[in-house]
Design goal:
With 377 residues, this protein is of the alpha/beta class. The protein folds into two domains: 182 residues, Rossmann fold; 184 residues, Up-down Bundle (Glutathione S-transferase Yfyf (Class Pi), Chain A, domain 2). Helices cover 40% and strands 23% of the residues. The protein contains ten helices and 15 strands. The strands form three sheets. A six-stranded antiparallel β-sheet has the order 2-1-4-5-6-7, with helices on one face. The protein has a six-stranded mixed β-sheet with strand order 8-12-13-3-14-15, with helices on both faces. Strands 9-10-11 form a three-stranded antiparallel β-sheet. The longest helix has 37 residues. Bound molecules: adenosine-5'-triphosphate and magnesium ion.
């Protein structure tokens, strides 16, 4: 019996669903159907219940069924210590509301940690292919789920950064305002140093796990390393040292920042570098190496969360199998049995051949889900 299980999912006016009620009693749940029927929408709603946001869009309104005012996503989860219920209410004109066990959460941050998940989709290739913003998002999502404090500091940081950038632009027209900059430097560095420190620890920890997994996937031919590259130079990485360096960096760049009207250094500029056998994957990696790197990262996320929280998260696989060769598929599927897994597929012949104690299959068609009893395996 798995420690963490999603038992119920109910959607009202979410994306292309009017009303959906699903009950899960298995370790492996498959959603099968042609394109554009609503498979990803279901996985997205589960991810939303874990993190408070969609993995596809920062705009909550897009999640509400077209023409409707409100959407409701409700999940019931079972853990070792009992069951809990998370509801998210989206409104066209209002901020989203989160209820945990029917009690309204004062802040979105309270949601973090109740239900964790790792989502894997072909889009994740962006992680190694695209610019640093994707990798920062990856770290932020991961750390926010396991450390409510991180989420809080991240929100703080972004707020302060916006203020500071606005001030920098105002100073261009009114130089005397520059005397207020140090206050913002200090506040930015205070929130930012915690973020940098956590990301640094996270990338070290993840690398230890990913190195082993990657080596296994590639039959011991590739060594994966990752390194947090901060725009703030620091050495031993204590909170105080990072904060002092952060303030120093900001101070020495006041002139540049004012001229540009934005903040040139800080954790909003940082990155992680992935290397295979010492060579940068983003710049020189083959398509297959990039894919394997992402797979290693995703599997490491699962292990990392387990290490940090003592329970495996849900695994959400969005069409992720079709992109992988047999051996890599096998590695990924080894986790089924350890974690409750939800897979979206277009092609029923792709149903993975794994041994699990139980599985459920839903056929997804035009915003409705039909349990399939008759599919043979
Ligand atoms: N806010 C919304 N209101 C109504 N319908 C929506 C909304 N957002 C998305 N849709 C519809 O949802 C469908 C897409 O759903 P989804 O992305 O889950 O498809 P899918 O089954 O994963 O398809 P694919 O196999 O192509 O990935 C589309 O028909 C789209 O028009
Ligand atoms: Mg999809």
């Amino acid at each position: 019996m798995l420690v963490l299980q999603l038992r119920e999912l109910s959607l009202k006016n979410y994306r292309n669903y009017d009303n959906l009620e699903l009950y899960f009693h298995s370790d492996l749940i498959l959603f099968i159907g042609p394109n554009a029927q609503g498979k990803t929408n279901i996985l997205e709603s589960v991810f939303l219940s874990c993190t408070g946001r969609s993995h596809r869009t920062p705009r909550d309104r897009e999640l509400i069924k077209l023409g409707e005012e409100e959407a409701l996503i409700r999940t019931r989860v079972e853990k070792e210590l009992g069951s809990s219920e998370i509801s998210i209410l989206l409104n066209m004109r209002d901020k989203k509301k989160v209820l945990i066990n029917k009690t309204p959460a004062a802040r979105l941050g309270e949601l973090m940690g109740h239900l964790n998940s790792v989502l894997f989709s072909p889009d994740d290739l962006k992680l190694v292919r695209d610019g640093p913003a994707e990798r920062r998002r990856f770290m932020d999502m991961e750390l926010s789920q396991i450390r409510p404090r991180y989420f809080y500091y991240l929100q703080q940081y972004n707020r302060i950064l916006t203020h500071r950038n606005n001030l920098l632009k105002e100073i261009q027209g009114k130089p005397s305002l520059a005397s207020t900059l140090p206050v913002w430097d200090y506040q930015l560095a205070e929130a930012g140093s915690y973020i940098i420190q956590q990301r640094q620890l996270f990338s070290q920890s993840l690398q230890n796990i990913a190195r082993e997994i990657h080596s296994r996937i590639t039959n011991h031919s590739e060594a994966l390393t990752m390194e947090y590259k901060s725009s703030i130079p620091f050495e031993e990485g204590s909170l105080q040292e990072i904060q002092e360096q952060f303030i120093r960096e900001l101070e020495t760049r006041h002139k540049d920042d004012i001229a540009r009207g934005s903040t040139g250094r800080g954790c909003h500029r940082d990155d992680i570098h992935f290397k295979i056998n010492g060579i940068d994957v983003r710049l020189f990696g083959s398509q297959g190496q990039k894919r394997t790197t992402v797979l290693s990262l995703k599997l490491s996320e699962l292990e990392f969360m387990y290490k940090e929280t003592g329970e495996y998260p849900l695994l959400l696989l969005d069409d992720a199998l079709s992109e992988l060769d047999r051996d890599r598929q096998k590695m990924l599927l080894e986790y089924i049995g350890k974690v409750q897994t939800f897979i979206a597929l277009t092609d029923p012949t792709q149903i993975p051949d794994v041994q699990t104690s139980s599985r459920q299959v839903f056929r997804i068609q035009s915003g409705a889900a039909y349990p399939e009893e008759s599919l043979s395996f």
